[in-house]
Design brief:
single chain, 16 helices, binds fe (ii) ion
């Protein structure tokens, strides 16, 4: 049964919509030391949906600096390489995440908003703890629950058992997933990120976002994402059915050398930043957060 489930999940991972080819190509260009943003904009400009979303994000209060920009190449130059990566990934996952996850009790748009809030929180924590690669924290936060997109349909039939196990044994929802189904959404998320050919640090951070002390190679990134997810839940942002049954690893706070005042400050900065990013209460769907708008590409 378990083996059978494993092969079904693997097949689903390969069926899940992947990052568009132009996004993979642009990410590759962005990782080159001699990256030319004009060339990157030519690649991205081939996809009008991604381009429109990127323009919308670049002009949100969260990213906008000064007057609105109307051309993709101008937006990329203004954002700079690190933030271009964030905006590109955000624009790419909107479509992939734009659906309800019934077993997790998340309506359409909620998994994207939860992911975006966690990304924003992770970047703030990275900044606070002087983690040098803030965009990595953002991207890992954005992708942390991607495994739920696959796991939702398997959880559906066993949801009551999972809840019962978590409640009776006072364990986290994610541990109950693993106990009842043999897999959990974090582990599956890691497999999705690996299938997308994203760097190993993202695979590990996603796979260990509920168990950061098991991260071997990039523990700091895993702790940042773990804490950002906890902050997102504490702000009540698209919590879902499992959100109230999450355990926070106290190690995250000590390992990142944060004190209680800094945590309070981070949570209140995060509350403002998610509003700046457009995550208001009216943002019912992913597209209403960063809607498509008319743009020209040059
Ligand atoms: Fe999770
Ligand atoms: Fe989460």
């Amino acid at each position: 049964m378990q083996e059978n489930l494993g092969s079904q999940i693997t097949a689903d991972i390969h069926r899940l919509e992947s990052l568009p080819a132009i996004v993979v190509q642009a990410l590759d260009q962005l990782s080159q030391p001699d990256v030319n943003l004009r060339q990157v904009s030519e690649v991205i400009g081939q996809d009008s949906v991604i381009t429109a979303r990127m323009m919308s994000i670049a002009n949100s209060v969260y990213y906008r600096r000064g007057a609105a920009v109307h051309r993709l190449s101008d937006a990329l130059v203004r954002l700079g390489i690190s933030m271009v990566k964030e905006v590109l990934l955000t624009a790419s996952v909107i479509g992939i995440m734009d659906r309800p996850l019934n077993a997790y009790q998340l309506d359409r748009g909620q998994i994207f908003r939860h992911s975006l809030a966690t990304a924003i929180g992770a970047r703030l924590i990275a900044q606070r703890v002087n983690y040098p690669y803030r965009e990595e924290a953002y991207i890992a936060g954005l992708l942390h629950d991607i495994g739920k997109l696959i796991f939702d349909r398997y959880l559906q039939d066993r949801y009551t058992e999972v809840i019962e196990h978590a409640t009776t044994n006072e364990v986290a929802f994610v541990d109950a997933e693993a106990h009842i189904l043999g897999y959990d959404h974090a582990q599956i998320g890691g497999l999705v990120i690996a299938a997308w050919d994203l760097p190993a640090r993202f695979v590990e951070a996603v796979a260990t976002h509920h168990s950061p002390s098991t991260a071997k190679d990039f523990p700091e990134l895993a702790y940042i994402v773990h804490l950002a997810n906890a902050f997102t839940l504490s702000l009540g942002l698209d919590v879902g059915g499992d959100g109230l049954m999450m355990m926070v690893d106290a190690e995250a706070i000590t390992r990142l050398s944060l004190d209680a005042d800094q945590i309070d400050e981070l949570i209140s900065d995060m509350a403002q930043a998610v509003v700046d990013a457009g995550l208001g209460v009216d943002a019912a769907t992913a597209d209403s957060v960063y809607g498509d708008e008319a743009v020209s590409v040059a």
